Amino acid sequence: MAASAASASSDMFDEIVMAEERFHGEGYQEGYAEGSHVGVVEGRRYGSLHGARIGSEIGCYLGFALTWQCLLQKCTDEKNSKKIKALDSLIGMIQKFPYEDPTYDKLQEDLEKIRGKFKQVCSMLNIQSDFRIGIERSSLTF
């Protein structure tokens, strides 16, 4: 009987000692699951916001290019011909931009090329461009 009492008190002590380790493991698992969920939600929100900014910027460039293409269509001299070619190139780059594929590995590279072409077109048209996106407004100033 003394052996069984010693065994029972030994089991009770083991449970107490192991409780900290068990609770630590359970807490870690719960924290990991909660952190994963919050991370997915935050990532989705960030991705939506960033995607909207890029879409707004690209849309502005396209609207700008199409407007100037229309304005320059009637002019047929060589100087305007170069401007129209640059505008056509910008429009082509924008139309090939992979809007639907966020995993496209050259997305940032292509976006930088479009920005560069836009700046080149603005220079050819003698327009100072400043594209800003803010919470309160987005604008293209001349």
Key terms:
mainly alpha, 2 strands, 142 residues
TL;DR?
By secondary structure, the protein is mostly helical. The protein is 76% helix and 6% strand.
Characterization of this structure:
The chain is mainly alpha-helical. It has three helices and two strands, in the order H-H-H-E-E. It has helices at residues 2-72, 78-96, 107-124; strands at residues 130-133, 138-141. It has a two-stranded antiparallel sheet with strand order 1-2. Helix 1 packs antiparallel against helix 2 (78-96), helix 1 runs parallel beside helix 3 (107-124) and helix 2 runs antiparallel to helix 3 (107-124).
Proportion of helical residues: over 70%
In total, the number of strands is: 2
Give the assembly state of these chains: single chain
Rg from Cα: 31 Å
Shape: rod-shaped
Largest sheet: 2 strands, antiparallel
Number of helices: 3
Mean pLDDT: 82
Query: Which sequence of SSEs, written as H and E, runs from N to C?
Result: HHHEE
Distance between the termini: 95 Å
Major sheet strand order? 1-2
